[in-house]
Design brief:
With about 280 residues, the protein is mainly alpha-helical.
Length: about 280
């Protein structure tokens, strides 16, 4: 029975994923690529030119999780990609009718994990490919970034400094920053999907979109002004450097706490989905 249930969950998630890959909304990934080039790659390339030496290819992806502007846009674009999640037509309606609700929900959760991993993976490789023109593969922060403010003290307020802030490379190594940037962004995308799922099972699908948008916008605002309440919002937890004091090597919020917050949030939303599904009717 367990194997049968596992196979059904995998089939549901795979059907969802294949249908999602055929969705015209995936053109948004091209929009993401243009946005990343303008907001991340171009400024880092300019930094490399000014310093006369290459930056690290991996610094491009790390910049995605450390700039307020980028952090607001990428989750919003991901929200648009999953705006109609979960599907309630065609093969998806068939699965809802033919299997137990908890099996169907588990399939949706697995699809959300697949979709989130796919998008984060695409963002990673797109950024790395575009960064190869101005960067080299090295597992350490480049001198071009770490010495930029020393070479140009009058440009400490430049946008490029905000992409890979000193508070990041002074507190952790590039591999650590890369791992945190990847997995915290992944967990955040999963939380976004779980909010959509729970809201849909409450027959309030559009409310899920509005709740996500509210949490994203308010989270960025609270984080920009450094209000204590910023840790209530998921988006704050995916920014590695925010976890540390600006000038001291002291943690403001433990990194493991952010993993627990995002993972517990996802699990809690899954539990809510299972509870409200008891009253959920397909037809």
């Amino acid at each position: 029975m367990g194997n049968t249930a596992g196979c059904m969950i995998w089939r549901i998630s795979s059907a969802e994923f294949r249908q999602w890959l055929r969705n015209s909304r995936l053109i948004i990934l091209a929009v993401m690529a243009v946005f990343i080039h303008v907001q991340v790659v171009a400024p880092l390339a300019e930094c490399a030119d000014l310093m006369g030496e290459p930056v690290s290819v991996l610094e491009g992806f790390i910049a995605l999780s450390n700039s307020g502007v980028v952090l607001l846009v990428l989750p919003l674009l991901f929200l648009v990609l999953l705006a109609d999640f979960p599907q309630k037509s065609g093969i998806h309606l068939f699965y809802q009718i033919r299997c137990e609700k908890k099996i169907w929900i588990a399939g949706q959760v697995l699809f959300a994990v697949k979709a989130s991993l796919f998008v984060v993976g695409v963002l990673f490789w797109i950024t790395c490919l575009m960064m190869m023109g101005c960067g080299t593969w090295q597992m350490g922060f480049s001198d071009a970034m770490t010495h930029f403010t020393s070479a140009y003290p009058d440009r400490t307020g430049d946008y490029v400094v905000e992409l890979v802030p000193g508070n990041l490379y002074q507190q952790m190594s590039l591999p650590e920053a890369l791992v945190h940037s990847f997995f915290l962004l992944l967990l955040h995308f999963i939380v976004i999907a779980m909010i959509l799922l729970a809201a849909s099972l409450c027959n309030q699908k559009y409310a899920g979109v509005l709740i996500n948008a509210f949490l994203l916008i308010m989270g960025v605002v609270f984080m920009e002004v450094k209000m204590k309440g910023m840790w209530l919002f998921p988006i704050t937890h995916i920014v590695p450097w925010v976890h540390y004091e600006e000038y001291l090597s002291e943690m403001v919020f433990p990194m493991w706490g952010s993993y627990v917050y995002l993972a517990a949030g996802s699990i809690g939303l899954i539990a809510v989905s299972l509870i409200v599904s008891r009253r959920y009717r397909v037809l």
